[in-house]
Amino acid sequence: MQFPSVQWFEAVQQEADTEADTFRRMGFCDATVLFESRSGEDSRRFVLDFEDYGMTSVRELRKGEADDAHFSLAAEDAVWREMIENIHVNGEADLEHTLNRLQLPGTVELAASDQQNADLFYRYNQTFQEFFNLSCRVESEFAGAGSA
Amino acid sequence: MSEVSEQGIAVPDKLAKLARENEWPLDKLERMLGLFSPFQVQILLDRKMTADQAERLLAGERPDENAPLYTPEQEEYIDKLKAGQYDLRWLNDQEPTWGIRSSLSSRGLTLMDINKAYAGEPEDVAPTDSMAPRGAVLEEEYPGMGYSLNSKYQVWSDNVVPLYEEAVSRQWSVTRDIPWQDLKPLPDDLERAQCEFCTFLTEVEMIASDFPAKWLWRMNQHYHEVKMFLCTQAMDEARHLEVFRKRALANGGGLLHARAETELGLANILHAPSYIQGSFLMHVVGEGLVLDIFRAGEFLAQNKVEKEMYRLCLQDEARHVSYGTMHLKYFLENHPDRETAERELHAVAEIAERSFTGFLCNSFIIEPLAVLAGGGIKHIDKGMDAVKIVWKRITDEYLNRCDLAGLDRRSRIALPAEAPY
Ligand SMILES: [Fe+2]
Ligand SMILES: [Fe+2]
């Protein structure tokens, strides 16, 4: 499955559905997240709605289309690819590839209209991490060659 | 109302009247008030306890067997029950609003759901000094809880109701949810760095239980959601103490050095002269800093145990910061004299920004961080780069939160944007 794509995020949520108890135990997560993958001047942007215990919808934005996300996580294609491949190899992100680990030094950029919205990334961090960890069960293909 | 007697004991008017009706001499009442609260004494006077019976209590003896157990009203009610008569006022009461049926949301029945259905928005000034539930009808005469925070702006934040729900929903267990079995021995320098860091965190965590607990009973029950949220915070901090203490003692290290400077920072919060000062110092400044320290802890984790414990803690911490930031905003926006309030908070911020350095220039905090970041004492220089990033994140986010709350520290912050080392 192509990463990133609407189908890819939906496939991860399908895996999350099979782990409903884990997500319920982690608790409510109410946030709209803009996921951005950059390649030079180009970028692909996806809006992920998290509500209650998981992602309830995802859509890709057109070029220049405004978003209504609380915060965005943006990185180069290669950064996301390395993270997804790492998760695939280890069954979860290893110590060097968690979302917070990548974001703190700015490898993944966190941006929001205000700090309250940015803080949602911290408040629901475990849910987001667990969500991406489950991509280890999704066959991922990347633009150019290769798959994980 | 109360008057102060010759012995300097405040005698509430209502109690003085009850004492006269029960033929207690004034000095007896005063001696009782020297030992018991006015409410304890009222329980006895309501039951028509005699002065002699009270004297036995003062002497530490049991009152005689004739000492009354029931109030006259209760005696009367018991007689009626014996005769098969029920009161049933509660059943026929015309006063309460009746017929409320809250709808459910997808996740169950939330406080937001019931607030939408009834008595949702608390008033700007609490209508009573009681614990009577918002929405209930309170009898005219009641003892009064003696709250001092009776205005909404003194405690409220617009996100506190969903934050309470979130807090309850996202609780976790240190014993169950941390994969302790994965803990492996570390080289001494790394274990010592983690343990020093955990000693510091074990020391500071429960200030954020003690401070809210100190103010909790003073907050009018009309704003019960704030009190409920602060109870979740007190629990969160107990769990944080637990996790860092356990980590320090779990892997061949131990609890290490605690600094007087840290204690000063904690006393600064606990003894803040008002709730808003303390809340700003703790929720916005202190916990904002600790949130980034947790993020650094996750970043520097040497194993899955540390990864999980810092990640779970940072989620909790972000809720506390969120309440504090939005409370500051609500406080400023609704304060009857915003200019004065802002001036006071700027002065508090001047002190608070200087107390940041107690952490950011504390060798027992930043050097362990640098050792963990560098991967050992040999690479402490390299590790200091991570400390500099943390400094920047802390000051950036602090300024962002002040901006959001409407307290402009950006133009006058005492702390430099970049670490001075
Ligand atoms: Fe904490
Ligand atoms: Fe906290």
Structural description of this entry:
The complex is a heterodimer of chains A (148) and B (421). Chain A has a single domain, classed as SCP2 sterol-binding domain (Nonspecific Lipid-transfer Protein, Chain A, 2-Layer Sandwich), CATH 3.30.1050.10. The longest helix of chain A has 14 residues, at 77-90. Chain A has six helices and seven strands. The mean pLDDT of chain A is 96. By secondary structure, chain A is α/β, with parallel strands linked by helices. Chain B has two domains: 2-58, no CATH class; 152-405, Ribonucleotide Reductase, subunit A (Orthogonal Bundle), CATH 1.10.620. Chain B is 61% helix and 1% strand. Chain B has helices at residues 13-21, 26-35, 38-46, 51-58, 72-82, 89-92, 111-117, 160-169, 174-177, 188-205, 207-216, 224-250, 260-270, 275-300, 304-334, 338-360, 363-374, 380-405; strands spanning 2-4, 10-12. In chain B, strands 1-2 form a two-stranded antiparallel sheet. In chain B, helix 8 packs parallel to helix 12 (224-250), helix 14 (275-300) packs antiparallel against helix 15 and helix 15 (304-334) runs parallel beside helix 18 (380-405). The longest helix of chain B has 31 residues, at 304-334. The termini of chain B are far apart. Chains A and B meet through helix 5 and helix 6 of A and helix 8, helix 14, helix 15 and helix 18 of B. One fe (ii) ion is lined by residues 208, 237, 287, 317, 320 of chain B.
